[in-house]
Amino acid sequence: MQKTIGIIVFDGVLTSEVTGPVEVFVSASHHEWFKDSRVLLIGVEPTPTIRTEEGLTLGVDCTIADEVVLDVLIVPGANDVDALIEHVGLNHFIRQQDKTAEWVSSVCAGAFILGSAGVLDGKKATTWFGGEESLQQQFPQIQVITNQPVVVDQRYITANGGLVSYRAALVLLAKLTSPQHAQKIYQALGIERLGDWADIESSL
């Protein structure tokens, strides 16, 4: 199976919301059932690199100005996405990809960006934990869900931020392949061993 997964990147993007999906899908691409699939980091601006909120410099594979056909579009978040919401080129790119992509996904405040592009109208969706009310007020056409870390509605997957990006990517991988394949990656990455806070506290 060959799939092209595009992740939107920009200065100030939250690191884990890019690296989480990258790790999940690149790990899966090492298996025959996801062989030759690739992940592209797609820059909003015409620069060869971006710098994440946490200071990590990432190379960009292409930009929203390039001709690219995606099977999956993922839009991560940032602490401030106001400029991205108003970015005409980004909104156009999202709308164009939405016409042909199998899946469209957001993490954290990325839901506000998808909301601005209009692709979540009439859909159930979530955003960063605590931001649900703002999402509902800003985009009343969206049916905002407040009690689920990952929300799936038709071919749209939205999620809370941070490490929940791994969970969302695994859900997406299961949709693209199978739950059994996604579980293999979940186990290979050792996510099941994170445990809850009581487990962490016992090690202090």
If you had to describe this structure to a student in words, what would you say it looks like?
This protein has 204 residues and is of the alpha/beta class. The protein has a single domain (4-201), classed as Class I glutamine amidotransferase (GATase) domain (Rossmann fold). It is built from eight helices and eleven strands. The radius of gyration is 16 Å and the shape is globular.
For the residues shown, what is the average pLDDT? Answer: 95
Question: How many structural units, i.e. domains?
Answer: 1
Say what oligomer this is. single chain
Going by CATH, what is the homologous superfamily?
Answer: Class I glutamine amidotransferase (GATase) domain
Helix content: 25-40%
Query: What is the count of β-strands?
Result: 11
What kind of sheet is the major sheet?
Answer: 7 strands, mixed
Count helical runs: 8
CATH topology: Rossmann fold
Order of helices and strands: EHEEEEEHHEHEHEEEHHH
Strand order of the largest sheet: 5-2-1-6-7-11-10
CATH level-two architecture: 3-Layer(aba) Sandwich
Cα shape:
globular
From the N-terminal CA to the C-terminal CA, the straight-line distance is: 44 Å
- Residue share in β-strands: 15-25%
Report the top-level CATH class. Answer: Alpha Beta
Q: What is the structural class?
A: alpha/beta
